[in-house]
Amino acid sequence: MKKSYTISSNTENESCGSALNIRKQTAIISRGINLCDLPLDILEKIIQYSDVKDHIHIRGVCRCLRDVSNLAIMHDFRTALKYQKSLNPPNITGSVLKTIKIVTEAYISSGLENTFCGILLSVLKSNYKETNRRQLGLFVFHFFSLIDDEIGNVNHQQSVTLYNLTLIRLLKSFTGSCIIRRKYKPYKVAIKLMGAYLKTSWNSKPHVIEPKDLLIMLSKMLSADMTATAFRQCGETTYALHVFGNGQIVMESVPYTMFDFIISGSRKICSLFRSCVESNLENFNWPSNLPQDRYNFTFKIVCKDMLKSISSALTKEHED
């Protein structure tokens, strides 16, 4: 009498799974063990032991190792930032890291994390214990130089919108920042920075200021504002010579800088910028996709030192 045997479906699945794993392992052995075959968390720990020079070389090997490098850099940066936020009073290192976060978060949320990590590694060299405003200025300069190449033309829709959002969030981060007036249709809003000043001593092209130059100056001003540090700096930009800093140096009076914005466009565009202006920094929800509608974005900078009764105005227009 013949005996019949029944094999359950679970046993069949296990057998198929085992056979598949064996074939994968055999394939790996036949072609040689590859570093990228290791789990990402293991690779991240390995890369963390590399010095900056080797880390930069590793990023150029392949996309897999570059992505692992990004994970390690972002982890170290966020860990250092979290530690600095716990310190009271804040120090210059903490102010630099916080400013870097604010000036880049719009771009990271749009998928440009690789550019951020590459510049952060080369400028700060993974040293989050001793940073200064000179390194902050270098970071902002190189980051936005690469962003222009990454996105394309500097007047590209995405580039313009990300820059405008970054500018508004930088202004809202100042301690003395306040909205003094707003109007709708078109959307008009004025943001005033008490104690901060940005003056033009000489300008070869009146009413023009390069976006990158403005962000560098505002980043240094914000870093000083976070630590309540009085400073004054004279900087030469593409078309002008600017004097900017923290107004606590002036004891007899309090200077201020005011940004007047006019934004006209579709309902989606106006809603995006209204949310950016009127929401708290932590409560703003970054859109998964930026609106592609055409719009006009104009702002004027007015800086007044009450002691000397000096005022200057700069206008920047974005049309897309």
TrEMBL record:
Pfam families per UniProt: F-box (PF00646)
SUPFAM superfamilies reported in the protein's UniProt record: F-box domain
* Residue span(s) of domain F-box: 32-80
- What stretches pass through the bilayer? none
What InterPro entries does this protein map onto? F-box-like_dom_sf, F-box_dom
Name this protein carries in UniProt: F-box domain-containing protein
- Organism, by scientific name, is Glossina palpalis gambiensis
